[in-house]
Amino acid sequence: MLNIPSLKNKKCLIGKNPHHVAVIMDGNGRWAEKKGKMRVVGHQEGLKAVKKVVKFAFIKKLKILTLYAFSSENWKRSELEIKALIKLFLFALNSEIHNLTKYNIRLKIIGNLKHFNKDFQHCVQKAEEITLKNSGLLLNIAINYGGRWDIIQGIKKIFNRIQQKKLKLEKINENMFSQYLSTGNSLPVDLVIRTGGEKRISNFLLWQIAYSELYFTDVLWPDFNQYIFQDAINFFISRNRRFGG
């Protein structure tokens, strides 16, 4: 799993690496169309890029990597493409679970899974349980995820706690609210990477990226690799992060 090309010819800036990197993986379909192939081929190649990114995050000793795999808006795509995406996701879960365990990577799926069938939900639950005690890289995969949905479901959880008299309204603050989001009480996102040339957030981790550095690249996701990842990290290291100060 960890046999990746050396970065000896790539400049690596000296500084503090980000702890939490989130990636909007855009461009699979366009990559395939440019090559005269079906969009599903782009998603298959995109899975190879996912493996490269996870490997590199492991090597760089990142604490959290969050990947935007399927947004709540992606249901607007064709039924054929959606079925292919779900099938590919299940294949990746089953084929990579051994490597995740071997390299101490914990898997967490974030998003609204109620739209998927029981078999899909069971597969996700099983994969999370197998890697639950792993203490290395936390790999979040966002499936049927939307930032607005995440905030609303967090509000609903808090409201239920207040109704049950387990939480007082005056006790709610930003840190507490974060615990009710799908990412839980994890580190805030330091760096957001978006491939494919678009320069927007697309309803991704709206609360969690309040002070993230944003890195956009024209590279389509299937062509993303450890060298481009290092460029993004270099960009992050070069930034003077003032957090509004």
3D structure, described in words:
With 245 residues, the protein is an alpha/beta fold. The protein has one domain (20-147, 187-236): 3-Layer(aba) Sandwich (Undecaprenyl pyrophosphate synthetase). It contains 7 helices and 6 strands. The protein has helices spanning 28-34, 39-59, 79-102, 118-131, 147-163, 174-179, 226-238; strands spanning 20-24, 64-71, 106-110, 138-145, 191-194, 213-216. A 6-stranded parallel β-sheet has the order 3-4-2-1-5-6, sandwiched between helices. β3, α4 and β4 form a beta-alpha-beta unit. Its EC number is 2.5.1.31. Mg(2+) binds at residues 26, 213. One of its GO terms (molecular function) is magnesium ion binding. InterPro entries: UPP_synth-like (IPR001441), UPP_synth-like_CS (IPR018520), UPP_synth-like_sf (IPR036424).
